[in-house]
Amino acid sequence: MPSIDVCYSPELLHLYDLKGKAVVAVDILRATSTMVTAFAHGATDIFPVMKLEECQAFAERGCLIAAERDGIKAEGFDLGNSPFAYMNGNVQGKAIAITTTNGTRAIHLSMEAEEIVIGSFLNLQAVTNHLLDLQLDVLVVCAGWKGKFNLEDTLYAGALVERLQHAFSFENDATLASLYLYQTAKQDLVTFLRQSSHVRRLENLEIHKDTEFCLQHDVYSTLPVWKNDRLVDIAAKRELA
Amino acid sequence: MPSIDVCYSPELLHLYDLKGKAVVAVDILRATSTMVTAFAHGATDIFPVMKLEECQAFAERGCLIAAERDGIKAEGFDLGNSPFAYMNGNVQGKAIAITTTNGTRAIHLSMEAEEIVIGSFLNLQAVTNHLLDLQLDVLVVCAGWKGKFNLEDTLYAGALVERLQHAFSFENDATLASLYLYQTAKQDLVTFLRQSSHVRRLENLEIHKDTEFCLQHDVYSTLPVWKNDRLVDIAAKRELA
To answer: Which of A111, B42, B84, B147 would be a feasible disulfide site paired with B92, CB 3.0-4.6 Å?
Structure first.
């Protein structure tokens, strides 16, 4: 039986051996939720990058460029980090370069893994099914908040563990704690998270709507996976095949 | 109102500013529980050190020396890491050098703090009262397990937060998660922790008795605090005064 483990911060990733494992990279508010939404609305490729300048350079390659700083769209960019900005047909058939801090870091530090999958509540069952197929040991890598633990990514890890618990072993405390927290919170994730620091930061920016959207389970069948130098949606490729 | 925050691993300590803060160092199974027990049974000073050789050198200074490796007393030492080994009058009036890995690391990495207090369930109320008196911002530093998150230290953090919640602000997710987990677990901590990885490791070594002992609340009024180069029990000094 493969195992599942949870890493609460990119700052702890050096303690884990990623070789041969499937990493699920998670940044619920909002990087990975937004990436999943972009693919669901027809984006072809996503390039996650750390820096604004790096992101801007992708414009010359014909990409849409997306950047958020302090919760709002950065000047000179096509898109911000709200999933709602990717829904009006504007990303159909396009490649996008997105710069986010926490989420991109989690992805870039996971390059040793056998596979990197992008997780969010929005594509929870798609990721679950894929991990059941893969039969690799799994590490959920929470982006956290500036290196620190955050609740929303942990709750996602717990939701994934709940769905995988009969097919994966978990003998570590981070996985248990994630599952307990999710089971405490799941009846009303929005209210539960309203106390969390990051959600309160976002609420100050009046993006309740984004938070509520990102906490919905199983909205999309999108399955973004890292290939070579970018994310692609392997669920879309399956549909085309 | 001062604040309380929780750091889940010494590996994350660099993300926190310790200046002017009170750190509560925690390694429930078993370093800090054992230190509290040793002071309660008359130990005068405790020197926490990282390495066996360093610890052995303290024997020449007239100290008892204590060391555990892989859950049992190391050869050539007076004491192991079980709290029961410190109860039969043998530590009365003695200084002790103890080597433990996770717990000592948490203490040594916290030297920038204004005050370092040793926390355990056994002296929970004593630490609570002391923090209420101090009125400093508090950071609970969980020793964790080889740098990773563990449940027993997190549950202690939650217990402390529960007692301090009306006098301290907490606007971070690690503190909230600790409190939720403690509230889920507190009716039966022993059963709850039986699923945890570290407790199962210890149970393999047949030290159920230690685990059950270390989870008892408010057994001692001991208050070990770092002074200069060692831990001393400031509660004992108050009683003498």
So the answer is: B42
- A147 vs B: CB within 8 A: yes
In the sheet that A4-7 helps form, which strands lie side by side, from edge to edge?
A: A4-7, A138-142, A22-26, A115-119, A224-227, A230-233, A45-49, A95-99, A64-69, A72-73
Residue A201: the pLDDT is 67
Question: Token pair of A220, please?
Answer: 């999309």
What pLDDT is attached to residue A11? 96
Q: Cβ contact (<8 Å) for A8 and B8? A: yes
Average pLDDT, chain B: 93
Kindly give the pairing relationship between strand B95-99 and strand B64-69: parallel
**Mean pLDDT score, A61-77:** 88
Closest CA to A143 of A170, A115, A108: A108
Q: Supply the pLDDT for residue B132.
A: 98
B175 vs A: CB within 8 A: no
Q: What is the CATH number of domain A4-231?
A: 3.90.1560.10
Residue A24 forms beta bridges with which residues?
A117, A140
B31-58: per-residue pLDDT in tens?
Answer: 999 999 999 999 999 999 989 999 999 9
Angstrom distance (rounded) from CA B206 to CA B202: 7
Break chain A into its structural domains and give their ranges. Answer: 4-231
- Say what the pLDDT of residue A206 is: 60
Pick from B23, B11, B16, B74: which is nearest to B225 by CA? Answer: B23
SS3 A62: coil
Counting every residue, how long is chain B? Answer: 241
The mean pLDDT value for B169-176 works out to: 93
Which residue, chain included where needed, has tokens 């709002």?
A: A72
Closest CA to B142 of B50, B36, B49, B5: B5
pLDDT for residue B241: 59
Min distance A58 CA to chain B CA atoms (Å)? 32
